[in-house]
Fold these 4 entries.
Entry 1:
Amino acid sequence: MIKKNVFLFFILLQVLFLYAKNDKKNTENLPLLNTKWVLTEISETPILQTLDTAFITFYDSYKFSGNFGCNLFFGEFTFGKRRIKMDFIGATKKFCANMQLEEQFLKIMRNDITHYYIEKNTLYLFDKKRVVCKFEGQILKF
C-alpha cells in the first residue's frame, strides 16, 4: 500500500512539473528576430486580416522584409534593449485596388520608429510619443 502511494505521489509530481513547464512557455515573449509579425493594429485602428495581410520580419542578418498589404518592402535595422532604428530601403510598386492601409503603413515605416516592446506574442512599435503599430507574432520554421 505504501509503495502504491509513493508511486502515485511521484506520478502526480511529474504531471505537475510538466504542467508548470508548459505554463512557463506560454508566458515567455516571442523573440524579435526570425518571427513573422502580422499587423493587427495601426494608429489605434484594428486591421482586418486578408489574403495579403501586412507583416514584417526582422532577421538576425540585421535586415527586415515584409508586406504592406499589397507591395513587398525591405530594409536594414539596428536594435538594442527596446531601441530600434529602421533604415527603410525600398519596396515594390504595383498598384492594388485598396492602397489606404499600404500608404498609412509606408508613412509610419518612413517616419522615426524609435523603440519597440514585446509582450508574449505581441510586438508594439513606437514613434517618439506613442504606439504606431501592433503586431501578432508567428515563429518562423526554417
Note: The chain has two domains: 1-28, 35-139.
Entry 2:
Amino acid sequence: MRALLAALMLLLAGCAALAPGADERAQLGEIVARAVAAARASAAEQQRALRLAHEAYRSERSVFNRVRLATLLAALPAPLRDDSAAYALLRPLAAERGESPLQAFATLLAGQVAERLQLARESEQAAREHERSMRAAELREQALREQQQTLREQLDALKSIERGIVEREEKLRRNRR
C-alpha cells in the first residue's frame, strides 16, 4: 500500500513538472524572490546581486537571465535602478505574443517601467519649463530694474533742470529789484 502511495506521489509530481509553464512559474518565483531579497538587502548585497545578474546575462542570454536582470534593474533603489536599461531588456519580450509566465511578467513589468520612464520625462520637462519661466521672470525683473533706474536718472535730470530754472528766475528777480 505504501509503495503504491509513493508511486502515485511520484507520478503526480512528474505530472506537475510536465504541466505547461510549471518550470517557468518556478523560475518566475525565483526571480521575484531574488528581487525582493535584493531590494531589502544592504547596498553591498544589492550591488553584488546586480553584478551576478549582469554576468549571468552576459554568459547566457536566456529569457530567464534577461527577465532576472531587468527585474533587478527595475526593483532596486537608486542609484542602482536603471529603468532605461530594464525597459530595453524587457521591450523585445513584451512585443512577442507568447503566453508563458515569464513573457506575461515581462510584459507587465515593461508596462510599469515604461510608465515610470514617461513620468520621469514629464517631470524633467516640467522642471525645464519651470526653469525657463524663472529665467524669463528674472529677465523681466532685470529689465524693470533697468527701466526704473533710467526713469530715476531722467527724474533727477528733470529736477536738476527745474532747480536751474528756479535759480535763474530768482536771480532775475533779485536783479530787477
Note: The helical segments are 2-18, 22-40, 43-59, 63-75, 83-95, 101-176.
Entry 3:
Amino acid sequence: MNLRQTVNLAKDVILMIVVLLLGGFGLYSVLRPATQAEEARAGSAASPLALGPAQQSATSSAHLQTTGGQSELPPHQKENIPSLENRDLAALFDAIRSVESGGDDRAVGDGGASRGPLQCGRDAWSDACEYGRIDWDYDTYVWDFARVSYIAHLYWKRYGATTDEARSRIWNGGPSGMSKAVTIPYWNKVRELL
C-alpha cells in the first residue's frame, strides 16, 4: 500500500467514525465522492476500505442517509440524492455490492459495459434516470454507492420488483430477469449474503 492509499484509508476510517458517532447524517457519502474524484484525477487504483459485514451495513446505511430528503452536497455538486423510501434495502444493496464488485466501488466488468459498486450498465442507468426524471451523468456518478443505489431503486420501481429475489434477478438480467433461468444462480449468491 502506497502513502496515498494509506492516507485515504485513514480518511475513510475517520469519516466513518464521525458518521457513526453523529448518527449517519450523510457526511460519509458527501465527503467520499470528492475523495474518489481526486483519486481518479490522480490515476490512483486504490480500492475502498475493506469492511466486515456489520461495518459494511453501517457504511451503506450512512451512504443512504440524507438530511430532509436531500443530501448536503458540496457546492460543485448541485444534484440532490433523493432519500430511499425503504431503508430496509440496505442489506440487499450490501449483498448485491458484494456479489457484483466484491466491495470495489471502482470495479469495471463485462468488458467495460458494467461499472461501479453495483456493476451498473449505461442502459439501466439511462432507464432509471428517465423513470425518476433525474439527469445524472453515468460516467461521473456510477462510482458513487449512494447514487447507484438510488438508480437501482428506481429501476426496480419501474419494473415492479417488490421482493429481494425479483430485485436481484431484474438487476442481473434486465426487465425480464425474473423469467430468465440464468438469473437464478445470481439470486442464490445474493440470498446467501442476506
Note: The first strand starts at residue 108 and ends at 109.
Entry 4:
Amino acid sequence: MQTFSDRIGRLIPLILGVATLAGVVLLFVDDAAPRLFPVGSHDTLAAFSLVAIACAYVVFELAHHRSAAQLVKAILLAAAFLFWAANQFWPNLPEASLFNDIAIGLFVLDVFLVIAGWPPGANDDVLDDCGNGAKGCSCGCQTCLRAQGDVPEVEAGRHFSRDEMNER
C-alpha cells in the first residue's frame, strides 16, 4: 500500500513531465510561427523543457527509492540535461560550447553505462515498474505476478502452482 508521501512523490514527476511536454509544444509552435512569441523566447522554452525534465527524472528516481548507484546515474543524466539547457539559454556566452561538450560527454557516458550494465541490475526492471514496482506491486500485470511468484511456471508442458514451485 502506498503512503501519501509516496503518491505525492510519484505525482510531482508526472506534473513536471506534463509541464515539460507543454513547453515542448510551445517550442514547436515557436518554430512554426516565431512572430507569435517574443524575441529570445525560443532559447528560454528550450532551456525550460530541458531543466524541467531533468528535475522530473531526479524526483522520479528518488520517489522510486533507487539504489545509491542508480541515483548517481540519474543525477549524471540530469546534469547532462542541465548543461544542455545552459547551452540553450546562454548560447552567446563563451562557455556555451563547453556546456554543450559537457552535455555530450555526460549523455555518451550515460548510454555507455547502460550498455555496460552499470549499476548491476539497473536494466532489469526498466520497463516493469508499475505501482510500487514489480517487487511490491499488486496491480496484477504479468511482470508483477511473476515477481511475486504468482505466475505458474511451465516445465515440459506442465504448469506448476505457486505452492508447487515453493516446494521445489
Note: The helical segments are 4-32, 41-63, 68-89, 96-116, 142-148, 162-167.
